Automatic annotation (TrEMBL):
Protein name in UniProt: Glutamine--tRNA ligase
Enzyme Commission identifier(s): 6.1.1.18
Origin species: Uabimicrobium amorphum
Quaternary structure, from the entry: Monomer.
Annotated tRNA synthetases class I (E and Q) anti-codon binding domain residues: 467-538
Record keywords: Aminoacyl-tRNA synthetase, ATP-binding, Cytoplasm, Ligase, Nucleotide-binding, Protein biosynthesis
Subcellular location, record wording: Cytoplasm
Name of a matching Pfam family: tRNA-synt_1c_C
Protein family per UniProt: Belongs to the class-I aminoacyl-tRNA synthetase family.
Motif 'HIGH' region: positions: 44-54
Domain spans labelled Glutamyl/glutaminyl-tRNA synthetase class Ib anti-codon binding: 350-450
Length: 565
RNA sequence: AGGGAUAUAGCUCAAUUGGUAGAGCGCCAAGCUUUGGCCUUGGAGGUUUCAGGUUCGAAUCCUGAUAUCCCUGCCA
């Protein structure tokens, strides 16, 4: 366990890491900007499940508000009814709650502001800063110009305020077909920033909205709805990802021209990427629809729901997000770092049990045929509050196939003929011989035990090199065990070739023998199967059939030694 | 007439604002251990993208290159 006797030093090391957004906020507070208040928000579009990249943004916004005595809002950015659904709203809320970020009363929807946004648009029209354009989509694209060439003005750009007002009202009233007109900002068709070339503010969509129903047939665009929603909520720091950097001038333009009292500051940071996964929503949706994975919460997915099901903890995810920091540099985090935080947290909280995944029968020849004992075993190696349990012991056990070798290499110090090893919490046993079938396959291993070593230690203090785990065959529970590896075999799966880069071993379904103490385990219960890994009860588990997910293996330095040879 | 952003260890980030670069993970060792886990200690690993310049002194300031990412939805 980690210990430090230098309290000052420990205090320092516990401080939250500083980063450029905190610097901005601290400067703002020092200058009493926004009356020294901090209001942040997480603004998901309810059109898919949240992934670990979103988690970083959620933690960032939540902890910033928490740390500076501010407020954290959850606002659904539901301005595109074609893609959005309440199913996603519920899933998103569930995930954010699980992460431990409480938005309290501050749950909002951009769709709550549609009326206000409409009024703002009228304001812009009256100021001559917005106009109804009747070009079709293709024409608008042509008029926009290109990256290297300026665009040209729409022929409808100089419509009168009165005409614009009337047309916009009619758009709202449903008098036009989709695509017939849009409302555009009047900015600068020659701007080098394409977002400023008279961007669309409203489009006609005769679609049912999951919250407003059929009340509206015009819907605001992101650039217009996001800044105004932020302003309405009194957001002080509107944090988003790098790809919105080019949108910031438009964010500011809208609020300046509308003249909102509140003008939040948009700040961009680099989103989190992870090796061995694909996080793009489109691609994840495809993997779900094409049954490459078994749903959004397939434990191999990088979604919050999947990680939860897999057995990762919110704390591990949070520690990762804090550790990787906040910066503007594009980055891809090694999965090994996530693994580290998952192991770190699980090591401290997961009760220990014994389970054998690849069973090999071990017969203790000098142990009485019908004898059974209950052996005391601590549930946690360092935290006594976890208590102890009793594990049944008998003449015939299962041990792990990997824990016996007939012809062991150097440095292998588990069981082999003639060697004494310890059965965890049990006895010292010495292997005497091996029983094989006609093909030479090992069927069972025989050994003798030393009755004087009960509990796993000897009076003469003699050393054994190895301790191996076991399960009493007679008492063992059989369970389905799902073993997971990276979904993709390569670090950076190229997005076009999902199938080609899949890891064929990403899921192995097997069975295992577990000690009886896990009989009543419930979904999401987490254990360490000693010496094997961390496991979590799956939601598919039932009293009749236990199902465990392998969250992650233990670090295995023997595997490294073996590999080097 | 293109614009915006970013470059420091394998990965992710620091560097008190001009005083010869540090941390976590990863990697390699050793110690400890009733988990080959945990824990402890040590080590390797840097032309700070490059080239000039200013300065006693540059990751930091100046000039100029280069590389990578983002932007031409009536998506967000």
């Amino acid at each position: 366990m980690k210990k430090s006797n230098d309290s000052a030093n420990e205090e320092n090391s516990k401080e939250e890491p500083i980063h450029f957004i905190k610097n901005i906020i601290e400067k703002d507070i020092a200058e009493n900007k926004n009356d020294g208040k901090v209001v942040t928000r997480f603004p998901p579009e309810p059109n898919g499940y949240l992934h670990i990249g979103h988690a970083k943004s959620i933690f960032l916004n939540f902890t910033l508000a928490e740390e500076y005595g501010g407020t954290f809002h959850l606002r659904f950015d539901d301005t595109n009814p074609e893609k959005e659904d309440t199913e996603y709203v519920e899933a998103i809320k569930r995930d954010i709650k699980w992460l431990g970020c409480d938005w309290g009363e501050n749950q909002f929807f951009a769709s709550d502001y549609f009326e206000k946004l409409y009024e703002y648009a009228v304001t812009l029209i009256k100021k001559g800063k917005a106009y109804v354009c009747s070009l079709n989509a293709e024409q608008i694209r042509e008029y926009r110009g290109s990256l290297t060439e300026p665009g040209k003005n729409s022929p409808y750009r100089d419509r009168s305020v009165e005409e614009n007002l009337e047309l916009f009202q009619k758009m709202r009233d449903g008098e036009f077909a989709e695509g017939e007109h849009i409302l555009r900002a009047k900015i600068d068709m020659a701007s080098p920033n394409l977002n400023m070339r008279d961007p669309a503010l409203y489009r006609i969509r005769k679609v049912h909205h999951h919250r407003t129903g059929d009340k509206w047939c015009i819907y605001p665009m992101y650039d217009y709805a996001h800044c105004t929603s932020d302003a309405i909520e009194g957001i002080t720091h509107s944090i988003c990802t790098l790809e919105f950097e080019n949108h910031r001038p438009l964010y500011d333009w809208c609020l300046d021209e509308i003249g909102t009292e509140c003008h939040p500051q948009q700040i961009e940071f680099a989103k989190l990427n992870l090796t061995h996964v694909i996080m793009g929503k489109r691609h994840m949706t495809r993997m779900v629809n094409d049954k490459i994975v078994d749903g959004w919460d397939d434990p191999r997915m990088p979604t919050i729901a999947a990680m939860r099901r897999r057995g990762f903890t919110a704390r591990a995810i949070r520690n990762l997000c804090e550790r990787v920091g906040v910066a503007k540099r594009e980055n891809t985090i090694e999965m090994a770092l996530l693994d580290y935080f998952v192991r770190e947290d699980l090591n401290s909280i997961a009760p220990r049990v014994m389970g054998v995944l690849k069973p090999l029968k071990l017969v203790i020849t000098n142990y009485p045929e019908d004898k059974e004992e209950l052996l005391d075993a601590p549930n946690h190696p360092t935290d006594e509050s976890y208590g102890t349990r009793q594990v049944p012991f008998s003449k015939v056990l299962y041990i792990e196939q990997d824990d016996f070798m007939e012809n062991p290499p150097k440095k292998y110090f588990r069981m082999t003929v003639g060697r004494e090893v310890r059965l965890r919490y049990g006895y010292y046993v010495t292997c005497t011989d091996v029983v094989k079938d006609d093909n030479g396959e090992i069927l069972e291993v025989h050994c003798t035990y030393d009755p004087e070593t009960k509990g796993g230690s000897s009076a003469d203090n003699r050393k054994v090199k190895a301790t191996i785990h076991w399960v009493s065959a007679k008492h063992a529970l059989e369970a389905e065990v799902r073993l997971y590896e990276h979904l993709f075999a390569v670090e950076n799966p190229s997005k076009g070739e999902i199938e080609e880069n899949l890891n064929p071993n990403s899921l192995t379904v097997t069975s295992g023998y577990l000690e009886p103490s896990v009989k009543d385990a419930k979904a999401e219960d987490k254990y360490q199967f000693e010496r094997v890994g961390y496991f979590c009860v799956d939601k598919d588990s039932s009293a009749d059939k236990l199902v465990f997910n392998r969250t992650i293996t233990l670090k295995d330095s023997w595997a490294k030694v073996k590999k080097k040879k």
